[in-house]
Amino acid sequence: MDIVGVVLVIISTLTSLIAARTSYDTFRTFGTTFYRYLTIALCCFTLMPLGYIFPLLLPGPENQIIVLVGMISLNAWAYGGLACIVGGVEYLKDRPNTLIIDIAFLLAGLVVAGRFLPSYQEIIWNGESWEIIFKQPLMILFGLFYTFIAVSVLPFLLLLWYRIKTSGSFDFRTRALYLGTVVSVIYSAIVLVVNRGESVASSIFLHSQAYLIFSILGTIFFRSLLLASPTIFFATRDDLLYLGIVRTRDNEALVSYRFPRQDKEILSYLVTGVHSTLNTILQEAIQSTEDLNQIRIGRDVITVAKGRRITGFIISDREIEILNPLLNFTLELFERKYGHEVLARHSFPEFEHEVSDIFQFAIQSKITPRWLNIPKGLRKEA
Amino acid sequence: MDPVTFLSAIIVVVCSVLVSYFNYRNYRRIGTRFFLYISISYLAFFGWSTGYLLQSILMEEPYLELVHSIASVSNSLSWIFVAFLITSTEYAKKKPNRVLIETLFLLTGLGIILYFEDAFFFVEWTGSMIRYVEGFPIALIRFVFMMLGAVAVVPVFIGIFKMFKKNPARFDMARKATILLVISGVISIATLVLAQSSSAYWSFFIVSAIAACIFISSTLWILEHHPTLFLAARHDLVELIIVAKNTGLPLYSFGFEEQDLPINPEIVSAFVTSAGIALQEAMQVKSYLERFHFGESEAIITEGLFVYGIILTRSSSDLLNSLLKIVVDEFEAAYWFKISDEVSTSDFAGFDPLILKMFEFDVPKTITSAT
C-alpha cells in the first residue's frame, strides 16, 4: 500500500471539502451565480480524488473491476466540476454566454461516457502497480474538452490578474494568493494533460501524487483568497461610478462617494427623489409590494436599496450581480455605526473609508484592505 | 437505394433548413434566445436527416461499414437536436431552469459517445436491408431524455392551450395547428423509438418522416402567423402606453387586464417622462430611461423619434423590449403626421390590431371581443 498516496488523497479530499464549505458560505452571503457554480465545482472536486483510493488500496489483477469502476465513477465528477468552472467564469463576464456553458457540459458528458467505455481505456496490473492507458478516441475527447476549458477560462483569469495587478488596491498577500491559485490550477491541469499521453503515463500512483500535490496547494490558496478578499473575482477598474446615501425623510445627501472614473458631480437628492416618486406611482400602477430596486438609463444602471432611515444607490455602467448585496451591507454598516446620528448630522465624510474597503475590487488606489472577513451582518442579510 | 425513404428524407431535410432559417430570422427580429436555440436544434435535425438521406442511398451490403459510420454521426446529432429543442422551451418560460439544461447537455454527451461504441450500436445485413441494433444504455438515456423533455415541454404547451381557452375565436386556426404539431411530434418520436430495434425499420422511418413533415409545416405556419405563440407562459402584462415626447401626454394606451389601471395612464406617463428628464439632469447623461425593476415587475421604456413607449409588466423579459421597439417604430410610421397635432387618444384606436398581434399571448378575452 502506498501510504503517501493515501495520505495525499485524504488531505486533498479534506481541503476540497473545506474550500467547498467556504465557497458555500460566500454564496450564502453574496448570492451570485458565480459562487453557486463554484460551490458545485468544489463539491465535484471533493469526490474526484477519492477515486484514487481504489488503486492505492487494492493491488493485484483480481481487483481490476473494482479498481476500474470505483476509480472512474469518482474521477468522472471532476469533468462536471470543470464544466461548472466554465459556467462560473462565464457569469463573471460582462455578457454571459449560456451557449458556452452548454457546450462545456456537452463535452463533459462526452468525456465522462468515454471514460466508462472499456475500449477507450485500459487499467492493467503490471506486477507492481496499476497502469492506466488511454486510447486514441479518449485522447481526442480529452484534447477537445481541455482545450475548450482552457480557451473559455484562461483568458479571463489572465485579464483578471491584469486588473488586480494594475488596480493597486489589493495587497501583496491577496495578489500572491490569487497568483498561487491560478498557477497551481494550471500546473495540476498540465500534469493531468501530460499524463494522458501514453508515452508519459506511468503508474497511477505517480500520476495521482503529482496531480494531488498541486491540487491541494490550489484549494488551500483558493480558500485563503476567498476569506481574504471574496470580491476579488469581480475586480474591475472602471465599472462603478458613484455611491450615494441619503436620508430617506428629506433626501439630504449624507455620503457621496465618487469612484475613480467618475468625474461629474451626481445630484444624489434628485436621484433618490425620482426613485421615491416613481416607487409610489409605479407600485400603485402595477399593484406591486416590492420596492423599485433598479433603474437603467442608457448604459448606466442605478441599483437602489433602502435601510431603515436611509436610502442608498450605486451607479455603474453595467449590471453587476454582486452590487445589490454589497449595497445592502453598506447601508447596514452605516446604520450600525451612525444610526443615532442620522437625523442630527448632515455629512459623514469618514464613512468614505468604509466604502473604499467594501468596494475595494472597483478602486484603483493604494489602500489597506481591512475587510478581511465576511461580516456576520451581511451573512444575515443575504 | 430506397427511393421512398430517399424522397421522405429529402423533404425532411428541406423542411428542417426552412424551420431553422425562419427561427433565426425571428431571433434577429425579436431577439429572444428561444428562437436562437430552436434554430440551432433544427440545424442539428438537418444533420440528422441528411444522415438518413445518405443511408437511404447506400442501403447495400458492401456499404455496411460506411452506413455504420454515417449512422453513428447522424444519430448523435439527434441528441443535440433534442437537447437544444428542450433548452429552447426552457427559454419560453419565465425563468429557464439552468440545472435542467446543464443535466441535459451532460446526458447528450453521454448519449453521443455510445453511438461510437460497437458494443452499444452496430449494423447488420439482414439479406435485404441494413438493420441497426442499439444497446440498453442508449435506450436508457433516451428514456431519461424523454422524461426530461416532458418535464420541460408540457408546461409550455399547457400555457399555450390555456391561452387558446381564453380566446377560442381568435386562436381557432392556431389551436388546430398546435394540436397537429403535438400529435405529429409525438408520432414522429414514437415511431423513431419503435424503429430502433425493429426489423421493419424503414416502414417506421417513413411514418416518422411523414409525421415530421406535418410537424415542420405546422411549426412554419405558427412562426409566420403567430410568432410569439410559444412564449405564452412568460408574461403578465399590465399596460402599454405611448407618450408624445414634446408634451409628455399619452397618445395611446392599451390595457392587458380585465380591470382598468388603478392610476390614470396620464399620471403614469407624466411621472415617467419627467423622471427621465430629472435623471438625465441628475446624472449628466444624454441617454434616456430604459427600465425600472421592482423585483420581478418592471417598467420598460423605449425612445422613438417623436414618442416614448412604456410597458408595465409583472414579469420581465428581453422579448418585451424588442416588441416595444417594433410597436414604437410602427406607431411613428403610421401616425408621424398626427403626433405633433392636438389629438385625442381615440384618434389612434386603429392601432389596436397591431398590439393584438404582437402581444396576443397576453390579451384577455373581453378586450379581444371588444376590438
List the helices and strands and how they pair.
The complex is a heterodimer of chains A (382) and B (371).
Chain A: H1 3-30, H2 33-47, H3 53-57, H4 64-75, H5 77-90, H6 98-116, E1 121-125, E2 130-134, H7 136-167, H8 172-196, H9 204-228, E3 240-247, E4 253-258, H10 268-286, E5 294-297, E6 300-306, E7 310-316, H11 323-338, H12 352-358, H13 376-381
Antiparallel strand pairs in A: 1-2, 3-4, 3-7, 5-6, 6-7
Chain B: H1 3-30, H2 33-57, H3 64-90, H4 98-114, E1 121-125, E2 130-134, H5 136-166, H6 172-195, H7 201-225, E3 237-244, E4 250-255, H8 265-283, E5 289-294, E6 297-303, E7 307-313, H9 318-339, H10 352-358, H11 365-370
Antiparallel strand pairs in B: 1-2, 3-4, 3-7, 5-6, 6-7
Describe the structure.
The complex is a heterodimer of chains A (382) and B (371). Chain A is built from 13 helices and seven strands. In chain A, strand 1 and strand 2 form a beta hairpin. In chain A, helix 1 runs parallel beside helix 9 and helix 5 packs antiparallel against helix 6. In chain A, 45% of the residues are buried. Helix content of chain B is 62%, strand content 12%. Classes of the chains: A alpha+beta (382), B alpha+beta (371). Chains A and B meet through helix 5, helix 6, helix 10 and strand 5 of A and helix 3, helix 4, helix 8 and strand 5 of B. Strand 5 of chain A pairs antiparallel with strand 5 of chain B, so a sheet runs across the interface.
For this entry, give a set of tags.
heterodimer; A: 382 residues; alpha+beta; 5-stranded antiparallel β-sheet; two-stranded antiparallel sheet; 13 helices; B: 371 residues; two-stranded antiparallel ribbon; 11 helices; 7 strands
